[in-house]
Write a sequence for this structure.
């Protein structure tokens, strides 16, 4: 567990802190995610994608739950994701993170904003539309377009 | 852009993206989840979209978690490990139901043993009672045999005491048991029979013809005793009278008059 923590705690903590903007709350999420993994290591299998990517999504989901002061909405079991990146090694993680950051810069700003409001603030598309003053349909389209642009940028050599 | 969405499933494409982020309104989630159950292609696209969202998470840069977080996690794990032996020690307190099986078995055996002892006592008592009854029956049987032996003994002296003024008259006593149809006859002072003749007892029912009930001959003293082995009289026959006639040797099926002795069946 110590080894896994050393490898992935940075990603988990960063995501939680980005969502919660509170170091104490982010530490709580960090603690919870790794304790859950220790209690039930079988909850993750290779079919659910890369462990690092999976942990980052779990951390984001738990942080959103904490942000919205609600009971955990997402079960560990329900998160299945397909992502092709090497997070096992220190070098692989650095490459993948840099690549993701670079890909994100290629996503148009309005799409990126809608995506980040949904992902880091846990807002629904209706809430985003109300917050930005954009039509619902536009928000839907932007979020979908942002994700596919991100995917495309990651696959470009 | 929609290369992973199956033709005809485009209407789900935007909802899938929102769903992957948890940004789809609850009202729309149910309908999409229903579709996802039956659509492997859309499930696959959902996993891809979540992978895309994970890239967003990976893009986040921030400070490393404080060192105390690591210690906190490892301490929490150590604490949980320490609690486990306590839980193990607690297991005997919450034993599963089947662990009580030997106790139940012992109790059941004890109850069976008690029941067997009681049954044995009852059997012993019943046995003793039966033994006592048999001893009593033996005594009574012995006495009956002694009486019969005395009555039928060739060397026994039979003396009938009667009034000195009247000659001894033939006398027969029959004992009949309607429940079994069995009877016994004891006769005294019978007249000697001519050669080739025998006395025959008849039972006269209230309705129907007389029924032959056995042959007997007097001895030198005019005494006779008869008890048919297999009575031909049906049980519970209502009898009107008992009669004796003199018949040819071997008896007959209908009485030959006259009746030499007679008694009421009542």
């Amino acid at each position: 567990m110590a080894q896994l923590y050393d490898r992935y705690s940075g990603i988990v903590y960063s995501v939680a802190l980005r969502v919660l903007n509170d170091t104490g709350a982010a530490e709580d999420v960090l603690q919870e995610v790794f304790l859950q993994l220790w209690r039930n290591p079988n909850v993750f299998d290779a079919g659910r994608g890369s462990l690092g990517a999976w942990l980052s999504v779990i951390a984001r989901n738990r942080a959103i739950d904490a942000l919205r002061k609600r009971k955990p909405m997402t079960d560990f079991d329900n998160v299945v994701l397909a992502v092709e990146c090497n997070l096992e090694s220190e070098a692989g993680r650095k490459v993948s993170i840099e690549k993701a950051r670079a890909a994100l810069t290629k996503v148009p700003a309005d799409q990126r904003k809608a995506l980040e409001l949904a992902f880091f603030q846990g807002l629904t598309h209706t809430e985003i539309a109300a917050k930005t003053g954009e039509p619902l349909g536009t928000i839907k389209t932007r979020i979908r377009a942002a994700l596919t642009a991100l995917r495309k940028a990651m696959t470009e050599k | 852009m929609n290369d992973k969405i199956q033709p005809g499933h485009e209407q789900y494409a935007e909802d899938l993206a929102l769903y992957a982020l948890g940004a789809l309104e609850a009202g729309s989630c149910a309908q999409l989840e229903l579709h996802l159950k039956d659509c492997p292609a859309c499930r696959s696209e959902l996993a891809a979209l979540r992978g895309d969202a994970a890239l967003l998470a990976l893009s986040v840069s921030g400070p490393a978690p404080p060192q105390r977080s690591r210690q906190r996690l490892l301490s929490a794990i150590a604490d949980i490990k320490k609690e486990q032996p306590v839980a193990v020690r607690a297991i005997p307190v919450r034993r599963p139901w089947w662990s009580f099986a030997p106790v139940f078995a012992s109790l059941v055996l004890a109850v069976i043993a008690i029941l067997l002892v009681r049954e044995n006592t009852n059997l012993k008592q019943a046995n003793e009672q039966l033994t006592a009854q048999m001893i009593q029956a033996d005594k009574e049987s012995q006495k009956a045999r002694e009486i019969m032996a005395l009555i039928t003994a060739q060397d026994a002296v039979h003396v009938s005491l009667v009034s000195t003024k009247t000659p001894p008259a033939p006398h027969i006593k029959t004992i009949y048991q309607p429940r079994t149809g069995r009877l016994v006859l004891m006769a005294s002072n019978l007249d000697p029979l001519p050669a080739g003749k025998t006395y025959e007892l008849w039972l006269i029912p209230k309705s129907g013809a007389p029924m032959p009930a056995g042959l007997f001959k007097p001895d030198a003293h005019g005494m006779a005793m008869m008890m048919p082995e297999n009575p031909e009289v049906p049980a519970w026959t209502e009898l009107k009278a008992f009669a004796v006639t003199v018949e040819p040797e071997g008896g007959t099926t209908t009485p030959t008059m006259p009746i030499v002795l007679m008694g009421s069946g009542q």
The CA atoms of residues 19 and 26 of chain B lie 10 Å apart.
